[in-house]
Amino acid sequence: MSLTRRTAAELGELMAAGEVSAVEVTQAHLDRIAEVDGKVGAFLHVAAEAALEQARSVDARRAAGEALGPLAGVPIAHKDVFTTKDMPTTAGSKILEGYRPPYDATVTARLREAGLVILGKTNLDEFAMGSSTENSAYGPSHNPWDLGRIPGGSSGGSSAAVASYQAPLSTGTDTGGSIRQPAAVTGIVGMKPTYGGSSRYGLIAFASSLDTPGPFARTVLDAALLHEAFSGHDVMDSTSIHAEVPPVVEAARHGDVAGLRVGVVRELSGEGYQPGVLARFQEAVDLLESLGAKVTEVSCPSFTYALPAYYLIAPSECSSNLARFDGMRYGLRVGDDGTRSAEEVMALTRAAGFGAEVKRRIMLGTYALSSGYYDAYYGSAQKVRTLISRDFEAAFHQVDVLISPTTPTTAFPIGERADDPMAMYLADLCTIPANLAGNAAISVPCGLADEDGLPAGLQIMAPVLGDDRCYRVGAAVEKAFQDRWGGPLLKEAPAL
Ligand code: GLN
Questions:
Q1: Where's the Amidase domain (predicted)?
Q2: Where are the beta strands (DSSP E) in 299-393?
Q3: Which of 65, 94, 290, 296 has the fewest C-beta atoms under 10 angstroms from its C-beta?
Q4: CATH for 480
């Protein structure tokens, strides 16, 4: 079997057994990138030389008898919103074109410590704002199932890279759904850890109370291995949780739902959902029951207000976070010809450097936070946020996990929602509640919708620090579906 078709766990074992070198594994993935990324557009930057160098060092350490972790030598695609000191970091924005950070994000540093080989940086919606990668200043990425469709967003380069076998693993960030939604529409696994379970240090901020780094992979076990490699307490992030990483790898190895209480969220289905997505979801519900889970319907009434609350809170935080991009410190500077004031240069730089969606959110957020409107908008949204957390708490008294479709539709055509922000925002209807409450949530593939043959995702939500439950249930579902499908859902990247 070609090295690019292997899972990360298999590659780790092959390298540990000396059957293949990290350089060979890396070269196979660089060759795949050269072969298909012209069509997919997953990468903004491919770091071939640095990757081979890292692979050589892993091989040398192994040859010297050093004990290495399970992912040493495994290639990974890294979302271009994490700082990397040896590669450009753009956050998908013109305002950071050519920016080379002087430091590594904690996630980046931990990938390197685990011996993972960073192949390059992946495309995203500008500053992670979007659900399709169409808001990237560098053009969209394409879904490997159908190149005319979106690979989800904002981490769409990362989902497309894994779904097209350019990398077995990738990183993402999930503020409102940006890992789970792209995973669902490309037929792979994507996990949003508990907020504060993975470090935000060196992650270019969008909405700081929501941003959460997490893994993409083609299997639940691979996602867990990556989750474990970069998560855990970090003194550099004041919101990092002081607790052990939940036993995610153990859980992924022992998928089991017998006796588990599963709640179907009543508010996350019905009108506006694609019939094929609902049909696959119902099959997953039946499957869980057949595996011994006790499935009941649970009502979380405040979830209905999650989307509007999110679109006040996230833009408010972004308007504050993005104030630092002023053309004075780093990145783009426009109009500095000696005749203009600093304020004029700032205005010209921001006008030229930010795209339409980013400007829309900065204006929305500035308005929501302005004196006289603060209580009516931002204050109310924060109250809704509390109600959503209470809904989760009440639900988790009745059940162990909650489930829903990950996203209401399969991958939509590129361009279809590009000029309709409200339609774009609906892609995150089911994922946003877990962000507002800080819970753990995963998306695993649950089949192909009948009407278009495109992947649908099952979302499994667990309490704060219950990340292992997501993996335990995800692994059970994955195994049962694979038995039924006769192998993984993603057997080939169909459009390539
Ligand atoms: N699509 C949502 C937004 O545009 C979520 C983005 C994200 O999770 N980074 O805000």
A1: 24-470
A2: none
A3: 65
A4: 3.90.1300.10
